[in-house]
Specification:
heterodimer, A: alpha/beta, Beta Polymerase, domain 2, 5-stranded mixed beta sheet, two-stranded parallel sheet, B: alpha/beta, 5 strands
Chain lengths: 158, 162
């Protein structure tokens, strides 16, 4: 199954929950509603042959609303097809279902997205910071995090 | 060391400085605190082509308690800063610190929320090596400069300038 077919198949399965799709020079993207996030990922894995979650990350589009995006890249080791799945989340309390139950690799990706953007993944087994230290306040890759905002753990000279 | 009470600030103490410094500068035990890509260049300076052993500094000690020189090689971030301070605190006097590469020296181009803008904000530094990464020749040059610095020190004043 090629990725174009996968986009069509995904639309056929989810109907109106697929907000938009696009294909540009082999980049095939589907945007789904946050409520359909887990359903879409599950369909890609179990029905459409995408057996590898390559990446999951957050993105901040301040001042757009909905402000945040969660982006997944899937790969099929059988056909070589790739597909990007996105969902858009509001700026207030961004939250979406965790994919860690489907893919073990989503575990740390989601912890990183929580650490950097403060996106809550509902149902994640252990949603702690991955890169920053526990005493760090805020989420450093948010566009409204201060450019020079530093939070040293020990006193600095100067 | 209590030498001033033994000998006073006399001719004998001065000569003792030279003897002790001669021993110190040709027998650095280094602690390589390697965090990033500079480590590859550090290994190159260490290995047979450039052979840091010619200067008596080939012996790495991976326990800070047995080391004389702390080589901070690579980027140090805020998460790691307490670890570096602790390693430094565990080293016995006399001790020296070499900041290896531009990241350890000033944070380099990592001017962001995560990176310490130079390890001299955390611990005192004796020699800075510029470069991204530094050439092995620069590392050897720094080592020779450190030897010169050590040879001018006195066993009496070491613990007071910290």
């Amino acid at each position: 199954m090629t990725a174009e077919n996968a986009l069509e198949a995904l639309k056929a399965r989810l109907g109106g929950k697929v907000v938009e799709t696009s294909s540009f020079r082999g980049d095939d993207t589907a945007v789904v509603t946050p409520e359909a996030w887990l359903e879409a990922a599950s369909a890609l894995k179990n029905g459409l042959g995408f057996d590898f979650l390559m990446d999951l990350c957050g993105a901040d589009y301040l001042p757009r609303e909905p402000r945040f995006e969660v982006v997944c890249h899937f790969y099929s080791s059988k056909t070589g097809a790739r597909l990007r799945l996105k969902t858009r989340l509001p700026g207030g309390k961004p939250a979406v279902d965790s994919l860690a139950g489907l893919w073990l690799s989503a575990d740390w990706f989601e912890r990183e997205a929580w650490d950097m953007y403060g996106i809550d993944f509902k149902g994640h087994p252990d949603l702690r910071r991955l890169l920053m230290y526990d005493s760090f306040e805020g989420h450093p890759l948010r566009k409204d995090y201060p450019l020079k905002g530093r939070q040293p753990r020990i006193d600095h000279a100067d | 060391m209590g030498l001033e009470t033994l000998f006073g600030n006399s001719f004998l103490t001065t000569r003792l400085d030279e003897a002790i410094n001669w021993g110190r500068k040709y027998s650095f035990f280094q602690y390589p605190f390697v965090t990033a890509c500079c480590g590859m260049e550090f290994m190159s300076a260490w290995a047979s082509t450039y052979d840091i052993a010619r200067f008596g500094a080939e012996y790495p000690r991976f326990s800070p308690r047995q080391a004389d020189v702390l080589f901070v090689v690579g980027t140090v971030n805020e998460k790691l800063a307490p670890v570096l301070r602790r390693v430094y605190d565990q080293m016995c006097d006399p001790k020296w610190v070499v900041s290896f590469g531009v990241c350890a020296t000033s944070g380099g181009f990592y001017d962001n929320y995560a990176t310490v803008q130079g390890i001299d904000k955390i611990i005192p530094v004796d020699i800075y090596i510029p470069g991204c990464p530094p050439r092995p020749e620069a590392v050897l040059d720094a080592l020779v400069k450190l030897q010169k610095k050590v040879s001018k020190e006195s066993v009496l004043d070491r613990e007071h300038d910290r």
